[in-house]
Each structure stands twice: as structure tokens, then as C-alpha cells.
Amino acid sequence: MAFPLRPDAPELPDFSMLKRLARDQLIYLLEQLPGKKDLFIEADLMSPLDRIANVSILKQHEVDKLYKVENKPALSSNEQLCFLVRPRIKNMRYIANLVNADKLAGRTRKYKVIFSPQKFYACEMVLEEEGIYGDVSCDEWAFSLLPLDVDLLSMELPEFFRDYFLEGDQRWTNTVAQALHLLSTLYGSFPNCYGVGRCARMSYELWRKLEEEEDSETKGRRPEIGHIFLLDRDMDFVTALCSQVVYEGLVDDTFRIKCGSVDFGPEVTSSDKSLKVLLNAEDKVFNEIRNEHFSNVFGFLSQKARNLQAQYDRRRGMDIKQMKNFVSQELKGLKQEHRLLSLHIGACESIMKKKTKQDFQELIKTEHALLEGFNIRESTNYIEEHIDRQVSPIESLRLMCLLSITENGLIPKDYRSLKTQYLQSYGPEHLLTFSNLRRAGLLTEQAPGDTLTAVESKVSKLVTDKAAGKITDAFSSLAKRSNFRAISKKLNLIPRVDGEYDLKVPRDMAYVFSGAYVPLSCRIIEQVLERRSWQGLDEVVRLLNCSEFAFTDMTKEDKTSSESLRLILVVFLGGCTFSEISALRFLGKEKGYRFIFLTTAITNSARLMEAMSEVKA
Length: 617
Known about the structure:
Layout: H1 16-31, E1 37-42, H2 43-52, H3 55-60, E2 63-69, E3 80-85, H4 89-104, E4 110-115, H5 121-129, E5 136-140, E6 146-149, E7 152-154, H6 159-165, H7 172-187, E8 192-196, H8 198-213, E9 227-232, H9 237-241, H10 247-255, E10 261-264, H11 266-269, E11 275-278, H12 284-289, H13 294-313, H14 320-358, H15 360-372, H16 376-388, H17 393-406, H18 412-426, H19 431-439, H20 453-462, H21 465-476, H22 484-491, H23 520-531, H24 538-543, E12 550-554, E13 567-573, H25 578-591, E14 594-599, H26 605-612
Parallel strand pairs: 1-2, 1-3, 3-4, 4-5, 7-14, 8-9, 9-13, 13-14
Antiparallel strand pairs: 6-7, 8-12, 10-11
Helix pairs in contact: 4-5, 7-8, 13-14, 15-16, 16-17, 16-18, 17-26, 20-21
């Protein structure tokens, strides 16, 4: 569904400026090494770089050869070497080995290291330890915002999730603050700020400090974006763990959308070659089906194919002049549409084959039962069978995490049994992964103290809200608690539907999960926007274990136009799924808002599990 925009829908800001800025800054840094140079690029940066400055632009600025930063020795004969890398220790070791090998061979060259998006002190320390700090010049390429689509910006930092939510490493919060500062400099300040989560609060405070330090000219600028919402991924793990059923989400789950494009293999292209396809609003076919529930996609594509055929058939009765017009004006567009149509039909067929093989319906049924809290024993048996049949280590982990979070932890007997079966089925090397999942609160065992929830609810009736909150906080500090059932009830996340849920004409955001569940993250955003604050949501915030980390900051802005007040920037810290994006696009259409998404990276259940895993695929 390219959701039809309401006539009064606000215009989106033009984010192409971010690309131009990033390109100009990179060119400036490359030109600081005049003359021919070889460029070594880290694998993670290749796709984002390609979206900003392709090979021909690099060649114009005297980049001779391009190399990938990898474990094998580099065979560059150039006298100047430039490294474009993420600030990681292993990259520093790689550069140090190369420079030290040159020193041993008595060779002198110029070396430049460009860190993206920022330079960390630890990296400089390693260069110093390796004895090459004086031989290299270091610079930062502050490229932290890549526009993947008209309403989607990504920081392309998939490691943010593990670094912050597992390791407790806060270094990327400064990168988030810098990115927000850049947006407010370019598009005016944000009059209304809301946020929930420890990381959201920290990033917000750092960003506010940056704003105060710079008494910039933006103070007088008219704000283009009326609201900004910062949200931590650990507020809502459930949504990220569910199987996606909107088209864009399914394409991501099946083929992996990387940096806004996807590699369709021979099974999709119906040829012996793979094809890299850019998926954004410019692909007219994709734009109309991206937010659709998968059950509607085939019908739409076959209708589109019939319409296309009818347009081709028009040429039959044409005279020469009409034919000339048809060839010069329409034919190219029709051919392009035909190519895209056959690709998406191929993708749908491939998805159908894979999902039928997996028995997708049974899987979805189990997920819905977990979300609703029914037939828990049957669902547990299904997960055990999944493990015993060795379907997939990542999928089995995902289902165990979904069971744990929706049930507020597994009872000790189930936890031990599932863990033992998993390790026997997939190998003992996964033991550390369980420790990680436990630390992150994704797969936990109910402690004896967890039976206090009944006592807790009685206590809360007897004492004031504030005191009850303190008691609950004391209880919840025993283990990272999800309280999913209570939150679900409070926010009505499981819609009660009489009869069948009509997926063709969705009534609410639950359509992104076949009508079974409204994404928690999206419901929170909807509720806060309705109230323009967290007022009345105290109980929800408490259940999210976020009493100190929910904030609202509203400035009296006379310059804010009614149009900009309907533009909302949602910042997902730790990743966001295509299902959430589709749900909020739907909400925007219903309420007359336009949402813009800024995420540290696009995520899905498999990426989430891989980030926690100690066994690298």
C-alpha cells in the first residue's frame, strides 16, 4: 500500500542535502592527500559509500585503486595509502601491520586514516602502542545519516544494538547526538521532544548540550519537523522478534535488504545471474506493495500485469504518428515497469516456496498464541520440536526469546529443559549466547521472587502510586522484567475482533501482524502523540521499568506552522523493523501525520539474534 496521502498531508523535507554534505566532506578529506592514492575501504562501509560517492567520483579525485580491508596482505604499489574505516581495534591492527611491514622493507609512504562516523580514543591508543601514531594522519568523516528513502534515514550502525544493549558501551550515543544536532541545524529545531529509555535519555541530554554550546543561527529558523520521538529498542523486543508479514518486511527476512538494496538470486530473476535492486519510493511497483500484507500482494501484481498488457495492446490500432509518440514517450516507462513487475512476482514466488517449506502458517499460529497468552504448553512443545528437528539455530532461539518475554521469563523447569535440548541439538558452543540473552533480558528464567507479582498487585491497591512504583522497581531489579502481559492489557495491543480481520481494508496498525498484535513501540508513539505528553501513561512507563527515563520537552514556538506539527521524526535506538515503519505509515495516513524514521540500522528477528550470538555464522 503506497498509502494514499490525505490532501492536507505535510511535505517531507528534502534529505538529499545530507548526501551532498557527506560527499563534499569526503572529497575534502581525500584532497588533503594530493596526487594519486589507493583507497582501502572496510567492507561495512562499501554499500553506504556507494550510495554517496560512486567509483567514478572517487576516480575524479585521484583515487587510483580500491581495496577491501581484509585479512590478506595488501599488494598496493602506490606511494600514498588512504584507509576509510569504522573506529574498530581490529582495523587499527590491520593498518599497523601494513605500516610496520613497509618500515621493515625500508619503504616510506604517506598514510591517512579516515574514521567514519567518528574517531575513538581507543583507536589512537592502539596506533600509539603499535608505534605508528606519528606515521599516519587521522581524520573523521562525520557521515552518520544515510537517506535510504524519502522518509527513512539510517545511521548504518548495526553494532549499536550489541554494543549498547549487551555490552553497556555508550560510545555511540555521542554519534546519535551529533546526528540529531546536524538535523536540527539543517531543518530547524524540534519544538516537541518525547522519549523513553535509558539510551534515549542519554542521547537527548548530549544533544541538548551540543545545542547549548552552539548559539547557532538556527535559533531564528522556522522548524520543519514539529515532533521528535526517541525510543530504545529494549522497550519493545516483542515486535522485533515476530515474523514479518508485510511485503517489505518479508523481503528483508527472506533476502536481507542491505543498505536499501537487495540481491535477488537466479530463482527470482529467472536467469542465471543475480541482480542488485534498489528498493525505495522510486520503484513504482514496489512503492505500491511495500506496506501491504503479503496475502494481498499477488492479487495486486496480477492486476498490475493485466493493466500493463492492456497498455501494450493499445499500439495495435495506432497510425504512424501515434506509434512514434508511444515509442518516444511511453514505451521506456512501460518496459521499466514490466521489468520491475516480473522481479517482484519472482520474489513473491520465491518467498512462497520458502515459507511453504518452513510450514509458515504453523509458525505464525504459535507466535499469535504466545502473544495472546493461550496454549502456552502447546507452544512450548512446538518450540521443542523445532529444536529437535534442527530447523535453524537462529529461529529456535528467536521462538525461545518470544516465549520468555511474553511470559515474563520461563519457569525454571522449562528454561533448563529448552536450554539443554538446544545445546544438545545445535552444539555446546552456544552456551555463551544464553548468557548474553539472559543479560539483555531476552531469555530469562523466573526467579523465586517473581511469584511476588500477585502480592505486588495487592500491595499497589493499598498504597499510593508512587510508593507502589518504588516497591515494583525493587522487585523488578531482581531480574530484567518484561511485564508484557500487563502492558498488552493496558495498551490494548491484542485487538478483539468479531469475525475475520479484513487485511484488505486494515482498521488499525495490527494488520502488520495479520490483525493479531499492534506493535508496542507504535502504540506508545500513538498514545503519547494523542496526549502530547506521558500524562496518563505512568503505569505503562512503570511497567516498562522506565520511570526515570520517560521525558517530554516542549518549547513555546510561535514560528511552528500547523504543517510542521504534523511531521514527526521517530528515532529508533538499537534498530527498527520494516513492520514498525509500515504500521506508523498507516497511522500517519489515518491521523493526517507524516512520519520520518531515523534508525541506528534496520533490524529484524534474525539480526537481533545474530547480534547476541557468540557463534558466528
